């Protein structure tokens, strides 16, 4: 009996350490875990580079709430493990967090015995049995039997040095990626800790991962900031149709907008300017990570891409320049925090889009231009150990003219675009401006009469195009890679195509008929 009483505390400590490590069964045999070739120990051994699956949390079982890495152990830089720990609260300004662990269930054979039973050797325990338990007599009085039937709480939920990646949590709607710097102590809400920012290489180690995950349009929060904005979306299994019964392709978000534009003072009513149309988006996030063979990070990338389609028109005689600066009219803000599952690690992507109209016009040219635009874009950054970070800016779009007329000498350019920012765990890493536009210019002499007739002698042309600009930010070092410059420009990408044009005399009547 003395030998059994000495073994009991050892068994309790072994069980507790297995719980902290995230084993699936509190009563599993440690020797069996070491010999059965479990997934995590195999990955840690480094015999082969683990290839992790990248998927959305809508796929499969929904992914992990959190993952924990414990650097400095027997396998430094090992892949993090899926964890049952949860971030109960987080204060980003101070780094203070409260971490909770799942309660240990009572013993199946003793449903009335509390989690921290007196038989576990706690000095504060009381040998009083629970009256409602049918088996609360003789077996519970044997201290050598209790550890194997009622596991005590883990010795420590979290420890200094632990790196935690968490899906959005109270106080951290953009997720948490932090390293525990101090365990403050137990509270009635959980274990209170101090944290500092961490990087993904501490969790992904020497693994590799690459995948593209669509952003669920139904999960995007849309804030209209202009009066004439309509929002619609379509998702598999839950169609939501666009305005006037128009159906959308699955996975698309559509924004319809109409706005009046400033016109020259004293101009005729027929010269009133407006921009109307719609934008359809299907955004995707591309994530890539490659652990270095000798440690560190070999490669990484984060990009935002997607299909784009729009149809919109610009009419009238706009006067929308102020000291050579275009007039920008934001009409909707969009935000999403999709969680992509990279192996056991939940990676929280923060996506913000601000859709806008921008007009640069001299108030002289009168236009009626409409185009149907389709294509795709990719913006972001990629890292290679030997080259460092490099920007990515691509756009393949083409516009088809629906209508294009112009009258009176002057010029006008109007964009229907989106400002985008993409980050991880609340740190902005990429900013980009994707701006498809319409442009018209009329050269020569102009004349007008009181009946609203206008004419221009010379040449005129209407163009469609796209501008892409932006920058990589220092916060992309969240991968564990260095960024030497605080801001790396994407470089301006411009493509333009001709919609219509002509030479000679172009005239326009009040009824809008072209001659």
UniProtKB/TrEMBL annotation:
Keywords: Signal. It comes from the Bacteria. Residues 23-154 are annotated as: Disordered. Coiled coil: none annotated. The keyword Signal applies. Residues 1-21 form the signal peptide. The keyword Signal applies. Residues 23-35, 114-154 have a biased composition (Low complexity). This is Lipoprotein. It comes from Streptomyces sirii.
């Amino acid at each position: 009996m003395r030998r059994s009483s000495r073994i009991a505390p050892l068994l309790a400590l072994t069980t507790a350490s297995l719980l902290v490590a995230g084993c699936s069964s509190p009563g599993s045999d440690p020797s069996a875990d070491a010999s059965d070739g479990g997934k995590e120990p195999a990955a840690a051994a480094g015999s082969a580079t683990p290839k992790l699956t990248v998927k959305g949390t809508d796929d499969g079982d929904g992914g992990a709430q959190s993952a924990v890495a414990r650097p400095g152990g027997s396998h430094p830089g090992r892949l993090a493990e899926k964890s049952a720990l949860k971030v109960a609260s987080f204060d980003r300004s101070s780094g203070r967090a409260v971490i909770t662990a799942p309660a240990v269930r009572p013993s199946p054979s003793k449903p009335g015995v509390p989690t921290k039973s007196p038989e576990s050797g706690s000095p504060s325990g009381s040998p009083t049995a629970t009256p409602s338990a049918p088996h609360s007599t003789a077996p519970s009085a044997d201290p050598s039997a209790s550890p194997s039937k009622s596991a005590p709480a883990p010795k420590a939920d979290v420890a200094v040095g632990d790196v935690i990646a968490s899906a959005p949590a109270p106080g951290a709607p953009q997720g948490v990626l932090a390293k525990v710097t101090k365990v403050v102590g137990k509270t009635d809400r959980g274990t209170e800790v101090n944290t500092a920012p961490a990087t993904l290489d501490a969790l992904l180690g020497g693994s590799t991962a690459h995948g593209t995950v669509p952003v669920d349009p139904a999960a995007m929060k849309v804030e209209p900031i202009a009066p004439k904005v309509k929002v619609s979306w379509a998702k598999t299994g839950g169609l939501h149709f666009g305005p006037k019964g128009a159906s959308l392709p699955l996975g698309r978000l559509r924004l319809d907008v109409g706005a009046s534009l400033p016109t020259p003072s004293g101009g005729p009513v027929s010269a009133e300017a407006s921009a109307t149309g719609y934008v359809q988006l299907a955004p995707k996030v591309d994530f890539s990570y490659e652990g270095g063979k000798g440690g560190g990070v070999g490669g990484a990338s984060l990009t935002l891409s997607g299909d784009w389609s729009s149809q919109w028109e610009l009419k009238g005689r706009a006067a929308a320049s102020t000291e050579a600066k275009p007039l920008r009219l934001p009409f909707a803000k969009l935000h999403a925090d999709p969680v992509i599952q990279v192996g056991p690690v939940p990676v929280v992507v923060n996506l913000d889009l601000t859709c806008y109209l921008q007009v640069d016009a001299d108030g002289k040219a009168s236009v009626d231009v409409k185009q149907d635009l389709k294509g795709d874009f990719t913006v972001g950054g990629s890292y290679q150990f030997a080259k460092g970070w490099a920007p990515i800016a691509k756009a393949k779009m083409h516009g088809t003219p629906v209508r294009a007329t112009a009258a009176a000498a002057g010029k006008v350019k109007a964009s229907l675009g989106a400002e985008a920012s993409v980050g991880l765990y609340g740190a902005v890493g990429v900013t980009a401006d994707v701006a498809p536009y319409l442009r018209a210019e009329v050269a020569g002499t102009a004349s007008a009469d009181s009946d609203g007739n206008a004419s221009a002698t010379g040449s005129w042309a209407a163009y469609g195009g796209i501008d892409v600009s932006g920058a990589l930010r220092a916060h992309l070092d969240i991968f564990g890679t260095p960024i030497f410059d605080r801001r790396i420009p994407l470089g301006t990408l411009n493509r333009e195509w001709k919609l219509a044009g002509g030479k000679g005399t172009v005239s326009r009547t009040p009824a809008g008929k072209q001659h």
